[in-house]
Design a protein that fits this description.
The chain is an alpha+beta fold. Helices cover about 25% and strands about 35% of the residues. The model has no long low-confidence stretch (mean pLDDT about 80).
Amino acid sequence: MNARQRRGLMLLVVSVLLAVGALAGVVAVINDVESKVGPEATAYELSEDVDPYQELSADQLREVSIPERYIPDSAVTDLAEIEDQVAVGPLREGSLLQTDMLADRPELAPGQQEIAVMIDASTGVAGKIYPGALINMYGAFQVTDRTGEQEEEYELVQLMINNAEVIEVGDLTEVEDDDSNTSEAVPITFALNNEDAQRVTFAEAFAEEVRLALVAPGDEQEIPEEERTYTIVGDSLGDPHADPGELFAE
């Protein structure tokens, strides 16, 4: 072996040693990163904005792989965790979904039944009614009172249901009345006992107008029976809850 061949062989050996050293360095770096990061796990983030109190579905989520050590304990890692869950607040696209962002969808209690009513968008606290909310429903009626030969007409507002729980809020829908006039309404489903379900059905069928009043959380008070009816006649005489029939009789 001449001098040139020996020099070439030495360069080859040095190159191999350098390559082995570089490979060892890369492996060491990878091992170090893996030791710090650890294995990855699947979590879910929002693929679109979700409105408050809207029920979540798998179509609104996308899978993401995140190192286990960086996934919070409250992160949703199984789609079974979102069944019958609604958003407790506005959720933004790209946010990592966590269980504290969700709440159980309201369910019927024993003795309750679901009843859906179309509520005019302008009178139904549009955009503020949500599943789990409590509402008071009022109906405005045109009443004719006959006392002997006298006949008096007056308007009456009646509290139909007090602290009724909302189960579901539908999408804004265009409806048409008997005169072919169109308006927008929202189907709202309530959880009611039998008597309240009849009151709601009566109001929807015969009231000139139905209005919902959203009850503030923590302010769920029972309105006394004597305060559940209002007339302008009684109000003008100092007692808004008086029976107009008795006032006319006087």
